[in-house]
Every structure is written in structure tokens, then in C-alpha cells.
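#struct-pred

JT: dropping the chains for the assembly here, can someone run the whole complex?
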Amino acid sequence: MKNLKLRRLLLLSRLEGKARQEKFDESTTVVFGENDTGKSHLIKSIYGAFGADASVMNEKWTKASVATMLEFSVDGAIHSILRFDNQFALFDAANNLLWTGTSLVKEVGPKVAELLDFTIQLTTKSSDLVVPPPQFCFLPFYQDQDRGWDDSWSSFKSLAMIPNFKKSILDYHTGIRPREYYSAQAQRADAQREQNELKAERRALDRASARLRNGRSPVTATFSPELFGDQIEQLLAELNELRAIYEGVKHKISELQSRRAVLVEEIEIARTALAELDADVKFTQNLSEAQVICPTCNTVHENDFANRFSLISDADACRGFLARARHSLAEVEADVARQMQSLHSYNDRIGRIDALLEEKRGEVKLRDMLKHESERIVDATIAAERAVIDGGIVEWQVKEEEALKLMKAHSSAKRKAEIVAFYTKKLSAFAVELGVTFGAAAKKSVSPKINETGSYGARAILAYHFALLHTIREFTTSCLCPIILDTPLQQDQDDTNAAAIIGFALKNRPRDMQLVLGTVSLHGAEYGGHFINPKVKESLLQADQFDTVNAYMRPFINKMLGQDQGELI
Amino acid sequence: MVLATDLVSKPLREKGATGGRYDFQTMWGLALLFQQHGTNDDYAIVFEFHDDIALLDSATNPTNVRFYQVKSKDTNGGWTLTALLKREKVKTEEGTKEKPSFVDKMFDNVDKFSSAVLSADFVSNQLCGFNAGKTSFRLSACEPSHFKKIVGSIQEAYPSATEAQIGLLGFQRTDLSLGDVASHTKGKLQTFIAEQLGTVWFSPEAVYQAIADECRRKANFSGETTSLQQAIKEKGLTKANVQEWLDAIQSNSRSPDWGTIAPSLTYPFADQLRISQEYAVYRAAALNSADRAVQRIRMRIAEALPSVIEDTTLSLVDMVEKLYLHAEEVGKKYLSPFSPLRLKAMIIYEIYAHH
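RK: done, full complex below.
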């Protein structure tokens, strides 16, 4: 079991020239502030750094194009993850770049999963077997302000990619089914897919061989080459010569084709360059200023004669390259046509081969005898191929059965009963503490349906959620992640309940697990620990923090963008 | 100093009609420049400045000036004296008015700038009908009866005009052909550059386009000028300008043809053939400054280039291999598809471009 701990969050908007950085306490951090102080942006950015976006994102925040950097530890080993738009990069404690990636499912997800031991593979809507992206890893640990406090499990975006994820993910996190179960399940799915592929191949082979048989004439001739001794010898001689000729022509044409490909590329490149240069020439001609400032990079270019001449001269050179390449292309194409044409002059040889094939001994033509023999060879080849496929299918069947056995071995009824019993005990205790009651059904499964109406509902969800977190803490085979609760007081709670809810969350944090609690106020609950308080309305990021954060983050961003030398951003 | 201030303080004449012939004036100005550059220490040729073209003896502190009225004509037959002295009548609100004749206009500058004027010439592609034997002469050198007519006509408009002053007026026939100004100028330009720079490779087409554009820029300037320096800067061509052109042409080196490079390479034949093809492709790609990927790789190669080139013990192949190691990683990142031989072709290009 691994343990993920947050250390520090840095947010940087170069567009707005503002930034912010905050540290997290080893155990509990309370983020409090009025609505609209950006408390939620800060909270959403934490798992957002890993690519797990909260289901509701503020448009203004998205437009500010904020680069997020999160420093964290996994079992004490410090890492930083950097996200800028859809680019991600992971750094080690010495700030070395470990990897970068842009695709959440293909690159970032598997890397994050590897880091956190999130070793589960599930099937997507389109039947691909994937490591679920980070939002599934963090799912039980995050309650979003907008979507978290109901029974819909939709704190994160893009959860619909995996159908019926709730049961699998909760069974996994709570350890009811340990990670060995899921890797066996993945192996079984793999074995099934391999078998299906082989079966499809076998069907295709059968269809092809059926088609070949249908087209055959019923005449059969015994293969007796001695009857056609002379003809076969002549045939071989003719074929050998013809082959040499064809090989020669083929070789020449392939050389010409590769030359042609280079020329086509050359023409395309020269054409593009020329278009750019012509546009530049025209632009500087119509320009009266002595200096031009590049709109994208702010470089000042002199618009003097030397510069204009150099552009015109480049365009002229380009025109020359283009003309020469076009001329060479025409020549190469004419050469190819000439080579193809040359093949026609060998028609008489083909005629001689035809005549040899038509010669008869008794009732048998040489052509028929050869045809029959080739058919026999084809049949034998197909049969051999089919046997290989059959063998492969059997191999994969064996693997599937092995995987199934493993799955059974790791879904122990005893372990499940033990885990559910622990969970039920916690659920009952928390229900009493928060003044709610659960029906019998809620106690039978770690993924029950919760009645969540009214102010009662929010407390019921909180009780269930903590029961689940305690269960995960006790039994998971995967990773403990920080518990992030954004504003649990969603429905109007009276003062007593409000204090109870905040107090409950602070008091019942499972041991060794980090808690980040977002709330408008503490509602009188006692708390003397670390807190973050974004005071300024509408502006989480601050101009006076920009220089410090920018200076710290820029080398990381440059490393991520592969720009060790020269400044890109 | 007097001329320099007068040139700015005295009002410019109304601008004449401009049209298709305009380019002829501009190109004649360029031809005039070729003539001046070899002989004069300093000069400035200013377009549309008191006359079609004004030639000053200094770009900074001129003391004398020559004026040229450049008029092309596409019908054959020379200029008659009548045509040169004719004052067209135009109707205005205050009644019929006479416009100044060509000769009036030429004399006007002599009158305005008096002793600073060395000459005021009428320049055309056609001959002068009344002195057809000569291509260039002072008006005072033609038949006395003709000259008398001229003096008479000028004195109608400028009663104080003296024969000595009128003697500054002249006529020039230019061999610049109206039908084919461009190719004619191109030829002159090529000769001029060859004289100035010796054997330097340059593209006549590009040089002509750039310089003709430059002249047109100046000739077409339509803004106000408030000082002589500004007038020369915006509308004039000076010795310094020409030096700038020549410098640009000389420093505009071009990567050589493959034939020049091949003998210095010792790669296997098949590789060398492939590099030569890549080189041809890259020559064009390098000119496209909008291709960011290529520019990234160029930057990378350029970093290590000076140190490699300074090492005189290295052969071309050694240099290429050294730079290859330096640029390989960046090349793999930005070249698509990546091929070692393509990167080598790029390196060879950059080595020669650096020289």
C-alpha cells in the first residue's frame, strides 16, 4: 500500500501575470473563504494537476490558461507533476524530468497508475482494455463542491468512458477484490481477445480456401513431369531469362520512383518556402516603417535594403530550385514511362511460354498438369496454416482458464465478509454520530444506493463516505490518496448540524491519511491547524506572487517543452 | 548653405501628371546614378524635387544642382521647337490661363536657384527635331534663329532672363528604350555591379527586382518633406545608398551547388547520392523562415558550428560527424521522418552557409 501526500501547489497564469503558491500540512489543511474567493479553483487544481479534472470548471479560470505544479510525496519520495494545458511532466526530487505526455489515457494515466500502484485494468465503452485514467484512481478521495455531495459519483469529468465503473472501482479500492484479481481479470480479457483474433483469422482462411475450391475445374491430372521433360526445360530457360529482364526493369523503376519521391518533396518544400518568401517580400514593399515588430515574438526586424534584398534574393533562389526540380521530375517521369514501355517488347517471349503450356501428351496439357499441382500445394499450405492457428487458440484457452482460476483464488468470500463487516461497523457508528439512519441494504455492500434528500442527505453521504474511506485505509492493496472535501455544507444545515459536520470531518480523518477541507467557515468547530485563506474576492492568483512563482516554474516548463536552450514562453 | 536652404524653402512646382511613363523617369534616374557613382565623390539624386529629377553634388551640404526634365514619347519623330515652347491654354474660373511650356519649367529652376544651377536638361528617348544631328547639346548651340526664338519665349515669362542663364538649358537623348525599360536597365545594372564588385555571384533577376523596387519606393514617395535631409532620405538616392546595395549583394552568399561540395566528401557512394538529394530538398527548406521545426534544428547546429569550423585539422566529413552528434537528438525530435542522411545534408549546408 502506497501513501500519496500533498506538499505544495503552485499556480501560474502568464496571461494574467498572476500566480499563487500554497503549502499543505502533513495531516490536515482547511481552505476557507467566502464564495467567489477562488477556494474551489485551488481545490480543483490539486487532482487537476494529475489530469483528473473536476466535472465543473469555471470558464474564466480555464481562459486564464493556468499552469499547475504540484509537489507531492509517495511513501516519502518527493516528486513534482507539472501541467500546462494538456501537457504533463513528472520530475523527481532533484528536478530531473522523468517523463512528459499529452494523452491522458495512453500516456499520463498508465504512468500515474504505475507511480501509485493503481494496477487495475477495465474495459472501456469501445471494448478496449485500459488502465483507467487518474480520475478513477482518485474517485473515492474527492468530493467536489458542485457534484460531490450526492449519490451520483460524478465529482470528476469523463467517468463515462468506463461503463459501470462504480462497483469495480470501489471493490478495488476497498480491497474486496485485490489488485491480483484485476490483473488476472486483465489477463483473461487478453486471452479472450487473442482467441477471438485467431478465430477471426481462421474464419477468413476458411472462406478463402472455400472460394479457391469453388473456382476449380473438376478435371484432375496426375503430376507426371517426365511426360513433358523437354517442354519443362525450355519453359524454365524462358522463365529465367524473362525473370532477369523483369528484375532489371523493376530495379530501374524502383530507383526512379525513389528519385521521384525526393523530387516531389523538394517541389513541395520549395513551393511552400516560396509562398512564404513572396508574402514577406510583398509585405515589406508595402511597408513604410523602418522597423517591423514581429507580432508573435516581438523581435524587431530592420526593414532596410539589405533585408529586403535578402528576401527577394531568397525568393529568386527558391524559384530557381523549383524550376530545376520540376524539370527533373518531368525527366524522371518520362524515364519511368520509357521503362514500362520496354516491357512490351518481350511479348514474343510470353507467347512462346504460352505455346509450351498448350502442348499435349495424350489428353493432358502441360498447363493443366501444372495448375493441378499448384492447387495441391496451395491446399497443403492452407491446411498447415490452419493447424498453426488451432494450436494458438488452444494455448490461449489454457491461459484463459489459468487466469480464471487466479480470479477465483483472489475473490475470497471470507475476505469480502470481513471487509463488509468492518465497513458496516464504521457506517453504523458514523450514522449515530451524524444523526442519520441507514436501511439494511446500505450495510450489505460498499457501493450501496444512498437516500440523499434534504439536509439529511448531505450528512448521510458524509457518513457513508467516511465509512468507505476508513475501509479503504484498512484493507486497500493500492494507494491511499489525500481526502479532498470541497464544502460539505451544501444544503441549508442549521448551526448545530453545520458545526457537527465540520467537526466530524476533522475528527474522523483516518489515520495516516491527509485531509484537505474546503469550507466557507468553520461554523464554530474547534480547529487549530494549518489553513489557507484566499481573501481577495474573484482573484485567487495574485500579481505580487508572479515573479517568485514564475522564476521557480519556468525552468520546469521549459524542460517539459523540450526547450533547455532559448526561451519559448 | 544657401542652396540647401533654398531647396527646402522655395515651393515645389505642382506635380505633373503621372502614369505609365513614370517608370521610365525612375529607371533613367537609376542610369544617371550609375554614371555618377564612378566619377563623383558624393552626390544625391532626388526624385520629384523641383523637377522630375534633381542631381545634387553632395548629400549633406550641396552647393550646386543639375535639373532634369524626363519626358518619354512613344510616337516616332523628334521634338519640335514649337512643342517645347508651347504654352497650353486651360480654362479656369478666372478665365483662360496659360500653362508654362517645357522650356518655361526648365528655366523656372534656373531663375529660382540662380548661380547654384549647373544645368537644366530636357531628357527624352526621342531626338530633338530642330538639331537632329546631335544627341546632347546646350540650347545655345543650335541655330541662332532657333535660339533667338527660345530666348524670346522665355523672356515673355521671365523678362529679366539673360542669354547666359538660358545657355544653361540643354537637351539629351537617352538610349534607354521606352518599350523595354526593364531589360535595358537590367543589363546596365549588371554591368555596373560587375564593375564595382568584380566577380561576385549574384542573381541579376533578384538584384534588379530589389533595386528597382528601391528606386520606385523613393520615386513614389508622396508624403511631405520638411528638410533637405528628409527629402534626400525619402526621395533620394545617395552614394551611401548604393554602397548599402553593394554590401548587401556581396554578403548575400549562397550555398554552393552540390558539384562543389561532393569532392570534399568521402562517404560511401550510395550515402553520398542520398545526401545530395537531401541537400537539394533542404536548400529550399532552409529559406522558409516560417518552418519552425527546421529553424530549431538550424539553431542547434549553429551553436556548435563556430568551434568545429575553427578546428583546422578537421576534414569536412569530420565536421559533419561532430555536428551530427551534437544535433542528432533535436533532429530526431523535429524531423519527420528523421533520416541521418537528411540531417547530414542540413549540416553540410550550414557549414557552407557559415563560410
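JT: nice. Confidence is low (pLDDT under 50) at residues 565-569 of chain A. The interface with chain B takes residues 259, 262, 265-266, 269-270, 272-274, 276-277, 280, 285, 304-306, 308-310, 312-318, 320-322, 325, 562, 565-566 of chain A (CB under 8 Å).
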